[in-house]
Every structure is written in C-alpha cells, then in structure tokens.
C-alpha cells in the first residue's frame, strides 16, 4: 500500500458531466451486486440524474470535490452544511454524504487521505463534529470509519428504490 499525493478541487456546474459519470460508476461498483436490479436502477436514475446533481451543485451548502492523484481523477466526495444535511441539520456539524474512490485506485490509502482533508474542512468551518450515514451491511466501510474515531450515535432508513435499508449514523468530534 503506497500513499498517494492527492490534490482536491471543488466542483462547479461546469463539472456536471464528469460528476454524473463518477457518481454512477462508483455507486454501481460499490453496491449493484447487493441490491435488487429494478430498485437499484430506479435509485441510480433518480439520485445521480443530471437535474438532481445540478441542483445539488448550485446549493451553496452542498460541496462536491474531485480528488486527483497526479492530475488523474481518482475519486470524489460530497459534504453538506446547514439545511443541506440529510438528517441531523445541526449548524455545528458537517455531513459527509459521499466519499468514493474509483476501483482502480483503491488500496492506496486514498480514502484515509480524503477523510483527513474533510476533517480539515470541518475545522476550518469551525464545526464541532462530522457525521455520516453508512449502510449497516457494509462492514468494510464501518471498520474504516471506526478506525478513524467515528462512533455510532443512531440509525436512519435509506431507500434504494422501494427497498428500505438501514444506515448507521456515525459521528466524529473534532
């Protein structure tokens, strides 16, 4: 496992096509095999549509960032502040809604470096904690977050199409 030298760039509406593609590609790679095909396709079409991602990009409280290793796009993340948060809605918190590394770039500690960058954003924004939801049947991700100090503080439903799943809510004090 080598450590990558990463750079980060906040996305704008001009990045919409690339954002749609990386969002779909990474979500499909991570979860398609664990879901009903009809529900999954319905979710992909809705959650990662051009229209929806454009609205999210235009929301000043939702921030997407592309992650690059030597000028190669290797992943992305999305954080939410204020009313853009999907559940907690605490003005002293930042939500990490999405963090994905493309398949060919996994195993290089990129996820850990992205998380450290996000924690730096939390500190710069003078927030008290970072929180996220992670699927209860994703033990690899749960272990990753717990290794970095996150603790479970609740659960909430998450829908993939009509399939109600459960996300654990995890929190990191900063």
UniProtKB/TrEMBL annotation:
Keyword Cell inner membrane on entry: no
Keyword Acyltransferase among record annotations: yes
InterPro entries per UniProt: Acyl_CoA_acyltransferase, GNAT_dom, N-term/lysine_N-AcTrnsfr
Domain N-acetyltransferase residues, every copy: 6-174
Molecular function GO labels: acyltransferase activity, transferring groups other than amino-acyl groups
Keywords: Acyltransferase, Transferase
SUPFAM superfamilies (alphabetical): Acyl-CoA N-acyltransferases (Nat)
Taxonomic lineage from the root: Bacteria, Pseudomonadati, Bacteroidota, Flavobacteriia, Flavobacteriales
Name by which UniProt lists this protein: GNAT family acetyltransferase
């Amino acid at each position: 496992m080598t450590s990558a030298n990463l750079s980060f760039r906040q996305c704008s509406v001009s990045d919409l096509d690339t954002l749609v593609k990386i969002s779909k590609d990474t979500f499909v790679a991570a979860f398609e095999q664990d879901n009903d095909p009809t529900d999954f396709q319905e979710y992909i079409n809705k959650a990662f549509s051009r229209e929806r991602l454009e609205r999210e990009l235009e929301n000043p409280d939702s921030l997407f960032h592309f992650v690059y290793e030597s000028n190669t796009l290797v992943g992305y993340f999305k954080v939410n502040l204020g009313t853009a948060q999907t559940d907690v809605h605490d003005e002293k918190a930042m939500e990490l809604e999405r963090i994905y590394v493309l398949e060919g770039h996994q195993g290089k500690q990129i996820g850990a470096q992205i998380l450290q960058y996000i924690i730096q954003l939390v500190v710069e924004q003078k927030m008290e904690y970072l929180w996220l939801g992670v699927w209860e049947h994703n033990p690899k991700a749960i272990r990753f977050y717990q290794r970095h100090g996150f603790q479970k503080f609740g659960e909430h439903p998450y829908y993939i199409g009509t399939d109600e799943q459960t996300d654990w809510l995890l929190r990191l004090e900063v």
